[in-house]
Amino acid sequence: MNTNQVELSLVIPVYNGSQTICAVVDSIHEVFASLARRSPPELEVVLVNDGSADDSDLVCTQLVNRFNGTVVFVNLARNFGEHSAVLAGLAEARGRYVGVLDDDGQNPPAELLRMWEHLQASDLDVVYGLYREKKHHWFRNLGSRFNDRMATLMLRKPADIYLSSFKVMSRFVVDQIIQYRGPYPYVDGLIFRTTRRIGQIEVQHEERQAGASGYNLRRLVRLWLNMFLGFSVTPLRISVILGLLTSALSVLLMAGIVIDKLWLNPSVPVGIPTILALITMFSGIQLVVLGMIGEYVGRLFMDQNGMPQSIVRSVIRSPAATSCESACCSSMQTRPESVIVAHDRHKESDDITLELHAGSAGVSE
Questions:
Q1: Cβ(130)–Cβ(162) below 8 Å
Q2: Which of 69, 243, 341, 364 has its CA 20 to 30 Å from the CA of residue 298?
């Protein structure tokens, strides 16, 4: 990571965003033109390609060359998920303040400017964007609300704070959360583990410019599990309480059966269906608790086994502006020649990088 600090970094995880990312980056440079035009620039846009199936990597590479040293491209080896991609981008970000927004154009940079100004004017560490009206699909909105309610319970989040991917953080928070090396990251969980100086302001949420959301039921469940199991032992405590309650219930049922058999209805045999139903209920509870414990143990195994949070194939930075065709989103036949730094930030050899320049290669510390 380059240690030359800038004023503001914006991290954008890119997944099949070749049709939208150009407009997003253009809008950022229009809104933050005063930072981008300084010498050296005080604006940094970190694009993280999370294993896209389209030509997002080519488009992001072209954007690096189009803008005057303000765009950085982090290319992951495969798809690791949004939160892993965000952490990979945060590890490369150099800003005193760091914002996170989506690649689909639904998070207006003008609103991020307001969030940044609010963060600077307060003693907060994080400012979330609270959407006035969400333009996501109803299914994703439902999943987001459920995840937000669970975060209130698991993370002890204030009920009035709405968690979203649209946020601005201080350097202090970023430095703390990028130390996390587990394979199942949840950025908001890391934030609440670090600080309670968190606020929000209302922001506009735009319609998606192109394509469809990458979130489906499987991804939403995985995100929920990362929050539910990765940053709290509350599920284990709930299982203990559930076990105590079911044990107490079984004692009451047994007492009721004895009383009924001895005094109330001695001629009525104990019902086999009742016994089978109780066995099924308690067996189901046991399987749920065992499955939850198994998930905890499995995650510990993956962590100890060295499962990576993400693997960075390359980092591309442009030290100066290069000429570029105006139609930046068109498909490219060849990659532009840029400074490529290939490394894996999860290995101990981080102090050695490979820099590939136009037609030559060298190893530097």
A1: yes
A2: 243
